[in-house]
Amino acid sequence: MNHQHGGHESPPSFWSSRYAIGLVVIGGVAAYFLLTEHLAHVVGALPFLLLLACPLMHIFMHGGHDGHGGHGQSKPDATKTTESRNEGDSR
Q: Hey, where are the domains in the chain?
């Protein structure tokens, strides 16, 4: 099953065009000058960003734990569901 489309070529990707290469170069130059000119501001804010990251990680990363209300409580017994399934199979 070889699907060949006669005469139909896909258009070239944007990232392989000369416009994309120019965009990447201009973006790299802009990033370089932003970092070199504002490095003192970024480095000065790093301790505060680290302290801010702690509560943000606590809030967003505990989403899978169903909050803190379930500490010390047992989960429903899984044996009850398997016993009821086994009773239905013994007919």
A: 16-61
CA distance 38 to 20: 26
pLDDT digits (tens, 9 = 90+) for 36-76: 998 888 888 889 989 999 988 888 887 655 555 555 555 55
* Residue type at position 82: T
Q: In Å, what is the CA distance from 27 to each residue of 10, 74, 80, 87?
A: 28, 54, 61, 67
State which amino acid sits at residue 60.
F
Mean pLDDT, residues 24-38: 94
- Alpha-carbon distance 50 to 57, whole Å? 11
The answer to whether the pTM exceeds 0.70 is: no
Q: State CA 22 to chain mean position distance.
A: 28
Strand, coil or helix: what is 10?
coil
